[in-house]
Design a protein that fits this description.
Blueprint lengths: L1 H16 L9 H22 L3 H35 L8 H29 L5 H25 L27
Length: 180
């Protein structure tokens, strides 16, 4: 039952927060995200057999780095969508805008990698190497499942692979989004 609630929350939260990426998250999306994070934290606590001190420190790390991660992911999504808008078939793309977006994507990936390294370095101060490795596996598994569910909600089938468009074919670019 707990697994079903987690799966349902994972399906609903991304759809609510992804309705319009330029608009801040709704209160409902935030509530669902908090529920997901709480359930994931409990699962991690049980699976890794964390001490009370480890659990407190991990929760603080998750909150701090999670906020930064979500902001970076939102920025990356906005850049990808703007790049998709620029690269419409039959429409000349603005080379300067495309270059800025490509450079921004690369910088965003570097920021995300640094964030993950900083988070891992911090967790190394209170988790054992085995706990850190298991935690990373659990988080990767959760993120894969979220990605699969998002793809299914958008009409895709199963996992999103190379060449899979995250945006439904029928969606039109937003007006006024051409030059950056």
């Amino acid at each position: 039952m707990q697994r079903l609630c987690l799966v349902l929350s994972l399906v609903l939260a991304p759809s609510l927060s992804a309705q319009d990426p330029a608009r801040p998250d709704t209160a409902e999306a935030e509530r669902l995200r908090a529920q997901i994070e709480e359930r994931f934290s409990r699962h991690v606590h049980e699976e890794l057999r964390l001490t009370a001190d480890q659990a407190t420190k991990l929760r603080a790390s998750q909150e701090r780095f999670g906020t930064q991660r979500r902001a970076l992911m939102r920025q990356q999504m906005e850049r990808r969508r703007a790049l998709e808008d620029q690269m419409q078939p039959g429409v000349a793309a603005n080379a300067d805008s495309v270059k800025k977006l490509m450079d921004g994507n690369q910088a965003g990936r570097a920021q995300m990698l640094k964030l993950e390294q900083d988070e891992d370095r911090e967790m190394a101060g209170y988790l054992t190497p085995v706990q850190r490795a298991r935690y990373q596996q659990m988080r990767e598994q959760l993120m894969r499942r979220v990605t699969e569910m998002r793809a299914q909600r958008r009409g895709g089938v199963g996992r999103m692979g190379p060449g899979t468009r995250a945006r439904p074919e029928g969606r039109r670019p937003r007006p006024g989004r051409r030059p950056i």
